[in-house]
Write a structure and sequence with these properties.
The protein is α+β, with helices and mostly antiparallel strands. The protein has nine helices and ten strands. Strands 1, 2, 3, 4, 5 and 6 form a six-stranded mixed beta sheet that branches. Strands 8-9-7-10 form a four-stranded antiparallel beta sheet, with helices on one face. The radius of gyration is 19 Å and the shape is globular.
Length: 317
């Protein structure tokens, strides 16, 4: 039997660092959203665990997060067989777009289908959280306010019909490095961003939220990496409602009101970025994700009835 899962990318619609925790992580507040750029994850029954990848620069050994996801799942559910995993990569590595974490989430979902596992409420989320901060969110699509280290989620409506241009400067930024430099960041009060989050959670989003987004890592990353700063300025020059760093970078994105404009800008940015693509939000409960049959068991998650539908184009560069 073969199972194929889409591992959707995500963007951070702002990010505030709230402080260091006793476990060494940082508490954050962010709004995360899946977009219709995705890796394709193919799983087949096998003896043992093997991993191959279309990107020769990605490790295929047991330290790869997709491999670790398979190990954790098979052990947790007492499955004696293994799995062969193939990753068809479209999401750039180390960009802040959640590629590795989404691959891991897709492995967890796919193994449920492959071996007919019906997790108890909270089981799959616990496995996801043990693998990485973003993996829990990437178990399902939609828009969510994330707290804690990113694993405490509340899904919210997203009524805005917008399109994104994602761009990558050609190099990754270590998340560990970025959080290790937090003390050098000038942290603003974040009043507008906190207000935006509150309005989203209360189901009363503002009509014009674009000036309310901010990412605490922007000043640090732009100062250290002028290529990132140039891409953000180019997005602004091309008419983006707002241009933001995703996570701690190195990927950036701009928000546009028309698909045509987003596609045009993505093509122009390819002249100076190593990679750029136009895409759009993926709504909660899109049909591809419902087919996995997991929704009744991912019980902590709320639906996002206001989310727009997605064409799920599988954006390619």
């Amino acid at each position: 039997m073969t199972v194929v899962e889409r591992a959707y990318a995500k963007v951070n619609l702002g990010l505030k660092v709230l402080g260091r925790r006793s476990d060494g992580y940082h508490d954050i507040l962010t709004v995360m959203q899946t977009v219709d750029l995705y890796d394709e994850v193919t799983l087949e029954e096998a003896e043992g665990i093997s991993l191959t990848c279309s990107d020769p620069n990605l490790p295929e050994h047991p330290e790869n997060i997709a491999h670790r996801a398979a190990e954790s799942f098979l052990e947790a559910f007492g499955i004696l067989k293994g799995v062969s995993i193939h990753l068809k990569k479209r999401i750039p590595v180390g960009a802040g777009f959640g590629g590795g974490s989404s691959d891991a989430a897709a492995v967890l979902r796919g193994l449920c289908r492959l071996y007919g596992i019906r997790p108890k409420p909270g089981e799959l989320e616990a496995l996801a959280s043990s693998l990485g901060s973003d993996v829990t969110f990437l178990l399902r699509p939609g828009t969510a306010v994330a707290r804690g280290r990113g694993e405490v989620l509340r899904y919210v409506p997203w009524p805005f019909e917008v399109f994104y241009v994602l761009a990558h400067p050609g190099f990754g930024i270590s998340t560990r490095w970025a959080y290790g430099e937090v003390d050098k960041i000038f942290l603003t009060s974040g009043d507008e961003y906190f207000n935006l989050v509150s309005l989203l959670e209360n189901g009363n989003p503002p009509q014009d939220p674009w000036g309310m987004f901010e990412n605490d890592f922007s000043s640090l990353v732009e100062g250290e990496y002028p290529q990132v700063r140039r891409l953000l300025r180019r997005l602004e020059e091309e008419g983006a409602l707002v241009a933001l760093l995703s996570g701690s970078g190195s990927g950036v994105f701009g928000i546009f009101t028309s698909e045509e404009a987003a596609r045009r800008v993505a093509e122009k940015l390819k002249e100076e970025a190593s990679w750029a693509v136009a895409c759009s939000p993926v709504a909660a409960r899109s049909s591809n994700w419902q087919d996995s049959g997991l929704w009744s068991r991912l019980s902590r998650f709320e639906s996002s009835p206001g989310s727009q539908s997605s064409k799920e184009r599988g954006c390619t560069t």
